[in-house]
Amino acid sequence: MDAYVAPVEDYRFLLSQVLGFDLEMAELGSDLDTELAVSILDEAGKLCTEVLHPINQSGDEEGSRIVDGEVRTPAGFSNAYATFRDAGWPSLSADTAHGGQGLPFVLQLWLDEMLSASNLSFGLFPALTRGAAEAIAAHATDAVKSTYLSRMVSGEWTGVMALTESSAGSDLSLIKTKASPQADGSHTITGQKIFISSGDHDFGGNIIHLVLARLPDAPAGVSGISLFLVPKFLPDAAGACARRNTMAVGSLEHKMGIHAQPTCVMNYDEAIGWLVGEPNRGLAAMFTMMNAERLMVGMQGLGVAASAYQQAAVYAKGRSQGRGASAASGTVAIVEHVDVRRMLLDVRSFVEGGRALAGWVALQVDRARKHPDPDERTRADGFVALLTPVIKAAFTDMGFESAVQAQQVFGGHGYIREWGMEQLVRDARIAQIYEGTNGIQALDLVGRKLSMAGGTVVDAYFALIEGDLDRAADGSIAKNVVTALETLRGITVLLKGADPQTLGAAAVDYLRMFALVSLGWMWLRMECAAEQGSTPLDRAKIDIARYFATRVLPRVSGMAATLSSGPEPIMALPVDAF
Amino acid sequence: MDAYVAPVEDYRFLLSQVLGFDLEMAELGSDLDTELAVSILDEAGKLCTEVLHPINQSGDEEGSRIVDGEVRTPAGFSNAYATFRDAGWPSLSADTAHGGQGLPFVLQLWLDEMLSASNLSFGLFPALTRGAAEAIAAHATDAVKSTYLSRMVSGEWTGVMALTESSAGSDLSLIKTKASPQADGSHTITGQKIFISSGDHDFGGNIIHLVLARLPDAPAGVSGISLFLVPKFLPDAAGACARRNTMAVGSLEHKMGIHAQPTCVMNYDEAIGWLVGEPNRGLAAMFTMMNAERLMVGMQGLGVAASAYQQAAVYAKGRSQGRGASAASGTVAIVEHVDVRRMLLDVRSFVEGGRALAGWVALQVDRARKHPDPDERTRADGFVALLTPVIKAAFTDMGFESAVQAQQVFGGHGYIREWGMEQLVRDARIAQIYEGTNGIQALDLVGRKLSMAGGTVVDAYFALIEGDLDRAADGSIAKNVVTALETLRGITVLLKGADPQTLGAAAVDYLRMFALVSLGWMWLRMECAAEQGSTPLDRAKIDIARYFATRVLPRVSGMAATLSSGPEPIMALPVDAF
């Protein structure tokens, strides 16, 4: 594969010309500016290019495996993790109160993009650690925090989330793992968990599992689930990894992709753990972790698409095949063929639109955390909650489709392992499934998020888009975005207060429409910004904005036509007839 | 995985209630009837269920490999091929003049569906043999035919098509393999071919390669390519495999899927071969083979989707997760959830619609071959030519999407190898690429097929659909099909006589629209037929017809909106900016 190129110039364009980064930072009382932010992203990009991408394909071929009961990651992973950790990347956006650098979340999310683009399997290790640390920071006792938190923030120790059991996946109410209180205030945890990403590794340090389990007196269902911190090693008073806890990797899953990532079956056999948060309120504590992870998983879709685009563009410019449009021309590079360009632009218009939208949402995360005005914090928090399922599901669906499309540019070579494109497809596929399947995300959007605060959050979001539309110049893509937004709004009105089956029948199409309109909004903002400039990047943005507006956005009309038929055609067929 | 169930009752429904099989056969002078046809399909289905499906997953795990310079297929494949061959399946639809059974092509295409559903890697061996035999029958000399044809028709010997070179894929004009005439009328062939499916194996018998190469005096480009028959073993006068030809497997490709299928790099080193067809007219001869293969490849998409549907439906009925729609209900099977049903019905409405359309096209193949009226033969041949790229591209795109969708029903288990769903996704992916990428198929449809016979073929096809619409009852799905057909016709008018870039910009969306309308037409016919009956199958057809009409067909409007923007938004971005 060609080397991964970090999209640093695109980040700069977004921060300085589109997202108003410097003003945002000033509003939040930070003196960070675009130049410093870009230099940080540039450093991260170098690490991804030089350290992580070179071991992505070999990691897939070799895979993680079990040696003497412990996970051995592929060659180079342990050293790469040490480099990543020692450079301080794990603590980038963590709260300074816990030893983090407190840098804006937009840097975190774009770092996640680059990690996913260069090595998705690797990126999961720090991402899960970060999510676990956030749950601990928000819900654990001071004693637990003082032992674990700073070591996880620094990346010295890693974190894991252990939710799923063989009979409890999307439905966590069915969890059976048991917790028994001990006299010293700890608990013993007994049960089996499956699909545990990063469940074990050979990076050194401790591995901190956050495990969902039931207390003896717990009520049935979701209101009887508690969260426990279960470390691989029980630390002594000095925090050293003193004693092995009674937990073990049962086996590694053999998967379609992310072979370098050890997906463990974990057995907890009276393992010692500590309650995190209130008894029976474990699901709420776990959702602190899940929500952070969902944005990150969206970045996995985006990152793989970005990587796939780069490879496909290089291939399309270098591969000669077929004649040009004029009869006189000889063999041309396949990028000259209109259908090849269509494939490339489908991918690129998603990638750059998605990168902008992720940046905007990440700035809302910062506003929600740090804005001096509590109303602004609430408002921003609402936008983050609204957009989280959209980013998780649409970015991973479009990310997978993009990887498939980029693979198609390679023709037969795309199907051959050595070219690396089929790995991107296999790796991207998991992101549509884990951290809540994309169907679950869509139900979250239509079932919970649309009705937040009486529907005012979604109304405020649409009003934001409308504000930019009103300001847009004639001749811009605004008219295309207006059409799509009006269609989306019409469906949104129909869905307000609809019954669960109507919502369920609309969910997946609605989420995609919502994502396309949001990407269209970002393309409008990018087009307007680029009209002020004259660099090749500015001119490219204008061309791609028009591509997105005319070739991608109109699909909204077909989705609207589909979902307005309601649930009846879906529910008519009797169960036995399936 | 659960056992594969051959869709025999669906075939019976289509033959007897939808496609008018008995009348068609009578018109072609055959006394074959539905009952006999179904019993043949039933036998084929048993073989697929009992012999081929059980070695599909193990074949993927083990893969084909090279031992002492020759290909060793996975355990069970050689025995399975012997069973398949000895039962006479290779000769099913071959011309009786060449030792075939001369049975209708609809049986062949549905056999292809079942082969692909149960074991795609296996199915390629007989499919390629059949295509090669057809090219030989149509173009080779009597001497060549008498040595090779009947042995290939019986499946004693297998066939291979060797087109692609590392610099010549979609663009065969760039082929470099050389042919030198010898004094005895034979030629020596020297060069390297890649991506040669079934290039070698351990099934016994000879392996007959049809190789594209250039004669010494050949003009450049496509009009300088000739076709040669190059056998692995040079037969003696009695037809025994007497002497090894100077050709060898250089290596096997490591692929995303179809691991059991040996995809060979083939080196021909002054290998002896015989010209098939006229010098420099090799591409025309090869297209005899390609066209037959393209319908078969479409069946690969359909077959994998059918298999994936079966697995997902069983899983969805057996996996309990989440609550039902009413608050009182406990945990329910996931098939009760509206979004899971949506996924299942997307797949099933494609599978059953596609099966019907394939049956209809296959009957046109028979009419083109056997109808007593030459005008009817021409008319039917036009329909086959028109629908071939549609079936190849849309069925493999929708087949892949269906496999992905069915995998999604399994949640995390779908990503784990042992469940088998991820293999279906990996295997299905190749069908979108080989035998002419789906982009090439779309260009064939808009660039060549729409303008066949001055556009009268496509007009006649639309008129056929319109005839059924006029006859349809009120309350049927006819109104949905009318809307989609009118949209398609509008775009078709716009494309007539359009320039190549406009055609290229529209091609892929247009092909999908064409496919959806065609599937809608089949669902209309199935709905009308089912309205006459009262079995559970009849009632299910009515429900699924309505699903397709309201939840799938309306996507045509979004595609129309997209493609009517023309090529400008695709071509604006300069090459350097990609």
TrEMBL record, chains A, B:
Domain Acetyl-CoA dehydrogenase-like C-terminal: 463-574
Pfam families linked: Acyl-CoA_dh_1 (PF00441), Acyl-CoA_dh_C (PF12806), Acyl-CoA_dh_M (PF02770), Acyl-CoA_dh_N (PF02771)
Acyl-CoA dehydrogenase/oxidase N-terminal domain ranges (all copies): 40-156
Sequence ranges assigned to domain Acyl-CoA dehydrogenase/oxidase C-terminal in this UniProt record: 280-445
Xref: InterPro entries: Acyl-CoA_dh-like_C_dom, Acyl-CoA_Oxase/DH_mid-dom, Acyl-CoA_Oxase/DH_mid-dom_sf, AcylCo_DH-like_C, AcylCo_DH/oxidase_C, AcylCoA_DH/ox_N, AcylCoA_DH/ox_N_sf, AcylCoA_DH/oxidase_NM_dom_sf
Molecular function via GO: flavin adenine dinucleotide binding; oxidoreductase activity, acting on the CH-CH group of donors
Keywords on record: FAD, Flavoprotein, Oxidoreductase
Cofactor(s) the protein requires to work: FAD
Acyl-CoA oxidase/dehydrogenase middle domain mapped to chain residues: 161-269
Claim: Flavoprotein is one of the keywords in the record: yes
Domain of life according to the entry: Bacteria
Protein family: Belongs to the acyl-CoA dehydrogenase family.
Name of the protein this chain belongs to: Alkylation response protein AidB-like acyl-CoA dehydrogenase
Organism of provenance: Sphingobium subterraneum
